[in-house]
Predict the structure.
Amino acid sequence: MRVFILVLTAVLVLTAVGLSVAACSGQASGTASPAPATVAPAPTTAAPTIAPTTAPTKAFASTPALPAPAALQGRWRAVIEPGVAILEFTATGYTQTWLGGGSGQIAVEEDEITFSGSRQCPGSGIYRWSIEGDKLHLEPVGTDPCPFRAEWARKGPYTRYD
């Protein structure tokens, strides 16, 4: 048994040495030939022209890269039967407390706010927002695919509540 282990060890060592030599020489099993050398193209003096492949679009709501302005951030309150709704905005998120509440991401571009990423609501809802004094108004832009979000968003106005 001892002899078998010694022979097996010797075979493994010789195999490892053979593979190491082949790897260092750039050949595996003696069948591959070295790769041909490639030459980089000569630099040109003209700057390359890069054309967009698609027209620019608004930022996707799933990637809220457009933070809410300071005037919109904070807490807002509205009386919506059967209770009170608190709507809180951070730079890139929102939380609302009406009928069990919910939260998600926002992206704000000029006077439009896009709500997305909520477990309670599918898709994104876009609203036009404005602040008059201490009142926040939200008006839908198109149809919101989430009736719950559409309900609490249009039931304002919301009053600043800090």
